[in-house]
Amino acid sequence: MDSDTVTADISLSSFVYALLLLPFLLILKHIFLKPPPLPPGPYPWPIIGNLLQLGKNPHVKLASLAKLHGPLMSLRLGTQLMVVASSPAAALEVLKTHDRTLSGRYVSSSLSVKDPKLNHLSLAFAKECTNNWKNLRTICRTEMFSGKAMESHVELRERKVMELVEFLATKEGEVVKVMDLVFTTICNILSNTFFSMDLCDFEREGLKDFIYRAAELGATPNLSDFYPILDGLNLHGSKKKSKEALGRILATWEGTLKERRKQKNPGSSHRDLLEAFLEIRFEDDQINQVILELFSAGADTSTLTIEWAITQLIRNPDVMYKLRDELTKIIGESPVRESHLPHLPYLQACVKETLRLHPPAPLLLPHRAMETCQVMGYTIPKDSQVFVNIWAMGRDPKVWDDPLSFTPERFLDSKLEFKGNDFEYIPFGAGRRICPGMALGARQVPLVLATLVHLFDWSLPDNMDSAQIDMEEWLVITLRKENPLRLVPKVRK
Ligand code: HEM
Predict the structure, then answer these.
(1) CATH classification at residue 364
(2) Which residues cross the membrane (predicted)?
């Protein structure tokens, strides 16, 4: 046998051995290199998964499910996978350690922008954190939320709040839907920052009702969110309804946009966001998209926080008394100014305590896994929806003493801030997707709240006692429409 034949025999036998070993190697790979499992969660039913388990207050139900399944759990909603983080440690993993991968946005099919050009120019609904999204955040920060921009709008915010006070004063003794009026004020603060004009009226319906309607449609789950294959069928007709509602919102500033495009020099006494957008040659569609998103993200969140703060103050007269006392000592008889806010620690603590118990976005906005990743020893597959249940974290007895009581004092000697670094307390989120409007929210909410508490006495109508305002989360919104929470403001003499 010559050496060539021996070499050929050896290679042939190595090949045969390798072939025989292959199944074993594959089995070993399967056993040892198997990706970690999905996060634990309730058993999913065939086809519907866990859809029926969420109910009408998903954050409340998810909080109780997390007690059974742990701080990182997964549920199936139709064909979609939902992952929920419910502890500060899990929130830190999602919003800091894996922020790059998990900062995609999951957008409901009824809200999703079909035009790819607009999708690239979206802020809250941008599916990825693209350069366009970064640029948009930078423009909004520079023009609206930076220290300089915030200072340039102080007088505007104070004026709008005084208009609310003047209107309320004309209603002495009457039953008033105060929170509708607060919503009007917040919308007008925003619309003046965008266009230097009011878009809402205390007496008439208009923009605010269209925004309610659009928000309601956006929050209503759509079957194609759970079964994307049904997307083209538009079973609820919700896309048509959202399009109508959005069309009516856009119509409220269409004329202004046209006018301002024609003007060479806008002539407004202070710069607004529209001026910045026109300078960088944004088209109408692009401007509409961003302003729409800023309205939807900024108006309801601030109003709900004020509404809950007032509700908690009525429920807790001692806290109301202490807050009034602080306001009287620091402000005296004059109207509240933004320059007073840094000197009102108890007011700031009341706002923080309200955001702990009643975060207006209890699950943040839905994030999306842009790639498959491993978190806390579990796999989160690409395109899963990822939520952080800050409502559950705000009421967790492992994190807070006596978590259900409204005790602003807990924030007085504490260094806890809502700026996205303390993961037990993130009402504005954290990481790349943190709320860009935090600076504005953190000024307009205490300004309006302090004004309402300082200038008015709050009492309930005779036929309602404080037990009746023992509301469940999100019921406030329902109350507003079906059985509005009517508080009687009495102007203090
Ligand atoms: C009390 C007031 C507010 C609270 C509690 C709040 C809270 C939040 C939260 C929790 C998020 C989602 C963060 C995430 O998904 O991780 C968010 C996003 C957002 N907020 Fe706010 N917000 C408030 C006021 C405002 C205001 C006044 C504006 C602007 C006018 C605003 C504009 C936005 C936008 C555009 C986003 C989407 C950001 C993105 O996806 O990149 N918010 N906010």
Answers:
(1) 1.10.630.10
(2) 6-28
